[in-house]
Amino acid sequence: MSDAFERLLRTKLDPLDAVADESARTRSDNDLNPDWDNHPEQRPAAVLAPIIKRPEGWTMLFTERSVETPAHPGQISFPGGRVQASDASAVETALRETMEEIGLERRFIEPLGAWDRYDTITGYRVTPIVGLVEPGFTLTLDPREVARVFEAPLDFLFDPANHEKRQAQWQGRTRYYYAMPYGDHFIWGATAGMIRALWERLYA
Q1: CB 145 within 8 A of CB 79
Q2: Which residues are bridge partners to 146 per DSSP?
């Protein structure tokens, strides 16, 4: 990745002052399942997609949820969570949750913008925020929420050949979802769907 990629992000992402725009495009777990129209009430949430500017190649940071947490135990996700009444914006939610979950300090993060909001079948409307992260940080994980973190290269994540479409049975019906297996990490569901949406925003 290079300066050209950073310029692409700054050009294609929704500006931070437009993150709350209700006319923004919304993606969904049902994008691959158009015959499903049963979405629960969507509660507002926000996540940070941390892009780390490693000299050897830019990466994206993910969390593996603790098996003890009630929200998506054991799954791969971006740091983030529900919007609180005290949060001034979705950006503030994403930064606050990132600090609480993994201890990544704000001084290392430059929030760039958002892309398509994402509705999950578990009842959240997620605003994803891209943040460029300077190396040199240290992390302190909250073990109640996060078991471990890992980084995956953007070259892998933004290669559509790695955007697998899989299927599973849920509530007695077949559902399709994106999956991006990376080493021993299984990135799938809403997280993979958001990555796919970001790839489409940047390149499609």
Answers
A1: no
A2: 65
pLDDT tens string 166-203: 999 888 889 999 999 999 999 999 999 999 999 999 99
Give the count of alpha carbons within 13 A of 142, CB side only. Answer: 15
Residue 112, both tokens: 């760039």
Whether 155 and 41 have beta carbons less than 8 Å apart is answered as no
10's tokens: 């700054």
Three-class DSSP category at 22: coil
**Cα(70)–Cα(38) distance, integer angstroms:** 22
Predicted local confidence at residue 126, as pLDDT: 95
pTM given for the model? 0.93
What structural domains does the chain harbor? 3-202 (3.90.79.10)
Q: What is the greatest pairwise CA distance in the chain?
A: 48
Alpha-carbon torsion (153, 131, 67, 142), positive or negative:
positive
Q: Token pair of 176, please?
A: 């399709």
Contact 39, 27 (CB under 8 A): no
74: left (phi over 0), alpha (psi -120 to 50) or beta: left
Judge contact between 118 and 107, C-beta under 8 A: no
